[in-house]
Amino acid sequence: MSNEAKVGIFIVAIVAVFAALSFTIGELDLKRRGTYPVSMVFSTVEGLNKGSQLVLAGVQVGSVEDITLNADYSALVRTQVYEDVRIPIDSQASIATRGVLGDKIIVIQPGNSDNMIEPGGNLARTSVPPSLDDLLVQLGELAGNLTELSFSLNATLGDEETLWAILTNLRNLTEESSSLVAENREEISGIITGLRRITDILADASGSFTSATEEFGEIVSTINAGEGTIGRLVRDDALYVSLVGFLDSLQHITSGIDEESTISMLMNDPALYGNLLAISENIRIITDELAEGRGTLGMLLTDEELYANLQEAVRSANLAAQGIEEQMPVTVLGTILGLIW
């Protein structure tokens, strides 16, 4: 047997001895301290084995007793917890990695509940962090995205000469902008002043708008309170009933307009409509002639001289009538005296 083989066998034996001692010490520790069972369910327990530590605040408080597969393809982990350690019922368990070698452990994050998990109970809140393989896959995808981004930037910006041209254009643009601002400082100040005035006007307008909205709110409140005409229309049931009655009466009137009624004839008889149209046309002709002073009545309406003569004649007739009234008593008295004598 070669020396290399002897060295290999020796190393394997040493490792086996250390493994046996570790397992034996763990078993002795569990047997020496009382425990109680607690179950928990994970979506995956990759890397977790029987005997893996159960850790709370960095301190081992138990170990994994058994791992089985549920009917829904989740992993049921049965653990043994030291009997002097009580775990709140709202605690959370997660699988983590300890040490350089990557040993898997179960880490308990204690909750705040006053109720504790009873022996044989279940810790319902569990989580599984992404595995190293998942992280490597995500890292590979990120590297691919960065590569595509660099290619896109190279295609957009081009070579070194293109970059220098872009920088030169930016510098020229900033210089031209500075000179433009310096040359038009007064105009820019005027524009800023105008904008300030506009903002002041808008501020005043916003105050007016606020007042208008408040007034509108008062109007709506008044209407809701049943005040005013509109409020009574909205809130007064009696007025609503009266309005409904009026509409019913109006409907009754309109339904009473049949084909034999006068209103129906006015609306539907073409001959009667023609007669009314002819009468209105004649009235228009007469009024036009009166306005133009045609005929006796038209002259009376428009001729000032004829109106004055007529007024004078009426005045003379009134005077004559008064004279007759004054002379009538004397004449009657003379007649009576003649009869007596």
Cα-to-Cα separation, first versus last residue: 206 Å
Output the radius of gyration.
58 Å
Largest beta sheet, briefly?
Answer: 8 strands, mixed
Instruction: Based on Cα principal axes, name the global outline.
Output: elongated
Mean pLDDT: 78
- H/I helix tally: 10
Oligomer: single chain
Helix/strand structural class? alpha/beta
Instruction: Give start-end ranges of low-pLDDT stretches.
Output: none
Q: What helical percentage do the residues reach?
A: 55-70%
**Topology as H/E string?**
HEEEEEEEEHHHHHHHHH
Count the beta strands.
8
Biggest sheet: strand arrangement:
7-1-4-3-2-6-5-8
Beta-strand residue fraction: 5-15%
Transmembrane segments: 7-26
Domain Mce/MlaD: 35-111
Organism: anaerobic digester metagenome
Pfam family, one: MlaD
Mind explaining what this structure looks like?
Among the domains are: 1-32; 35-129, no CATH class; 258-314. With 341 residues, it is α/β, with parallel strands linked by helices. Helix 8 packs across helix 9. It has an 8-stranded mixed beta sheet with strand order 7-1-4-3-2-6-5-8, with no helix packed on it. Strand 3 (59-69) and strand 4 (75-82) form a beta hairpin. It has helices at 3-32, 132-157, 160-183, 185-224, 228-235, 237-255, 262-268, 270-292, 295-302, 304-340, and strands at residues 35-42, 53-56, 59-69, 75-82, 92-98, 103-109, 121-123, 125-127. 65% of the residues lie in helices and 15% in strands.
